[in-house]
């Protein structure tokens, strides 16, 4: 089993649709969680951190469920410019000190006019 | 202008040659990372460093080498021992703190072996 697993893609949605991405992680000691966006042939960019209480940034809402080891990202009112690959990222502490960052393989989103 | 710079943006190499990819940051971040990304795939960790003069192997370190002589710089050398070096190489940095901070990426270098 992969340490971080995301929905297989691609997702094809019309403009204005609501789309949800899901991500599960295997290490219950994971400490911090993020969603990144990666455009074609570009570097990943931080979209938002994910907090236990859930957090919202405009049309984007992130949720964390520690009991189920599950993270979600909801995009409302999709825009053409939301077309990208969305990466789920998890950090957990190592016994030797420091932390390890695990990137999911990403889910590709296509928003159509 | 703060951030992470990688150079060159595109690099072409003949088989059997070593090449060095540059990564410089002025964010004063302690940790620096090198990842490789192949088409349609996720990021794989090559090497990382959390302090000057110290670095650790990631998941796919074979055929690569790094140095961390300065906090600002973390160059990656792709050696001739790397059998399939054509890929997109990404450098990232992070401030170390409780919980494990988010990573920030440079614009990447596309390496093509001819």
Morphology of chain A = globular
Strand content of chain A: over 45%
Residues in helix, % of chain A: under 10%
Which regions of chain B are unreliable across 5 or more consecutive residues at pLDDT < 50?
none
Strand % of chain B is: over 45%
Give the helix tally of chain A. Answer: 0
The succession of helices and strands of chain B, N to C, reads EEEEEEEEEEE
Terminus-to-terminus distance of chain A: 37 Å
Low-confidence stretches of chain A: none
Structural class of chain A: mainly beta
Give a short summary of the structure.
With 113 residues, chain A is mostly beta strands. Chain A is 0% helix and 58% strand. Helices cover 0% and strands 49% of the residues of chain B.
Task: Give a description of the structure.
The complex is a heterodimer of chains A (113) and B (114). Chain A is globular and about 50 Å long. Chain A has 113 residues and is mostly beta strands. In chain A, strands 2, 4, 5, 9, 10 and 11 form a six-stranded mixed beta sheet that branches. A five-stranded antiparallel beta sheet of chain A has the order 1-3-8-7-6, with no helix packed on it. Chain A has strands at residues 4-6, 11-14, 19-25, 30-38, 44-50, 55-57, 60-65, 70-75, 84-93, 99-103, 107-112. Chain B has 114 residues and is mostly beta strands. In chain B, the strands form two sheets. In chain B, strands 2, 4, 5, 6, 9, 10 and 11 form a seven-stranded mixed beta sheet that branches. The radius of gyration of chain B is 13 Å and the shape is globular. Chain A binds chain B through residues 31-32, 34, 41-46, 49, 87, 89, 91-93, 98-99, 101, 103-106, and chain B through 33, 41-43, 45, 50, 88, 90, 94, 96, 99-108.
């Amino acid at each position: 089993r992969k340490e971080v697993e995301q929905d297989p893609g691609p997702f094809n949605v019309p403009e204005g649709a609501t789309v949800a991405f899901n991500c599960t992680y295997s290490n219950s000691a994971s400490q911090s969680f993020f969603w990144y966006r990666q455009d074609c042939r570009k570097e990943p960019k931080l979209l938002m951190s994910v907090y236990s209480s859930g957090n919202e940034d405009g049309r984007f809402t992130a949720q964390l469920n520690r009991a189920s080891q599950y993270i979600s990202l909801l995009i409302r009112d999709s825009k053409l410019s939301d077309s990208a690959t969305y990466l789920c990222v998890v950090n957990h502490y190592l016994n030797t000190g420091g932390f390890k960052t695990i990137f999911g393989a990403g889910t590709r989103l296509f928003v159509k006019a | 202008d703060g951030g992470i710079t990688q150079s060159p943006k595109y690099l072409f190499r003949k088989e059997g040659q070593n090449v060095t990819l540059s990564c410089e940051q002025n964010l004063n971040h302690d940790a620096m990372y090198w990842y490789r990304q192949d088409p349609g795939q996720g990021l794989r960790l090559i090497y990382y460093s959390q302090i000057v003069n110290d670095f650790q192997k990631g998941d796919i370190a074979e055929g690569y080498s790094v140095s961390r002589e300065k906090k600002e710089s973390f160059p990656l050398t792709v050696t001739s021992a790397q059998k399939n070096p054509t890929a997109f190489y990404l450098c990232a940095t992070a401030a170390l703190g409780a919980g494990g901070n988010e990573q920030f990426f440079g614009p990447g270098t596309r390496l093509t072996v001819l």
